[in-house]
Specification:
With 135 residues, this protein is α+β, with helices and mostly antiparallel strands. The chain has 3 helices and 9 strands. The strands form 2 sheets. Strands 2-1-3-9-4-7 form a 6-stranded antiparallel beta sheet, with no helix packed on it. The protein has a 3-stranded antiparallel beta sheet with strand order 6-5-8, with no helix packed on it. The termini are far apart.
């Protein structure tokens, strides 16, 4: 996935240059342009513009949320209408979406305490029942 990085022009510090870069190269503090209809590539704060964001992927809320300067946007949400500039606060594995994915993966591989207890009980109970049924 790509992101549009906004930087000051090296030759003329009063102008800005837009560069399309891989989202993995974005660092906290970078300024990004997010076009209408595109996914927000990082967690960040809006510093220019206003829009409606579809946060259903993160929150489950089906209605778009209005966002303005100073509001937080999350990685993976969709910018629906307005052009916004976002200053990156979290990138890569530190974004909210990455943290959610990590928690789900951990939950899938770990056993709940009650499941561990059931495994211990069945480890003793089943052999006892088999022995008693043989008698």
């Amino acid at each position: 996935p790509c992101a549009i990085l906004i930087e000051k022009d090296q030759k003329n510090q009063d102008e800005f240059v837009e560069t399309e870069i891989d989202v993995d190269l974005v660092e906290p503090g970078d300024l990004l342009k997010v076009l209408p209809g595109s996914k927000v590539p990082i967690d960040g704060e809006i510093v220019f513009g206003k829009t409606s964001i579809d946060e259903s992927m993160i929150t489950g809320e089906s209605m778009p949320v209005k966002k303005k300067i100073g509001d937080t946007v999350l990685c993976g949400t969709i910018n629906q209408h307005g052009l916004i500039h976002v200053q990156a606060t979290e990138t890569g594995s530190r974004t909210a979406l990455s943290q959610i994915i990590k928690l789900i993966e951990e939950a899938q591989v770990s056993k709940a305490p009650i499941q561990k207890l059931a495994d211990k009980i069945s480890g003793v109970f089943v052999p006892i029942v088999l022995c008693l049924s043989a008698v």
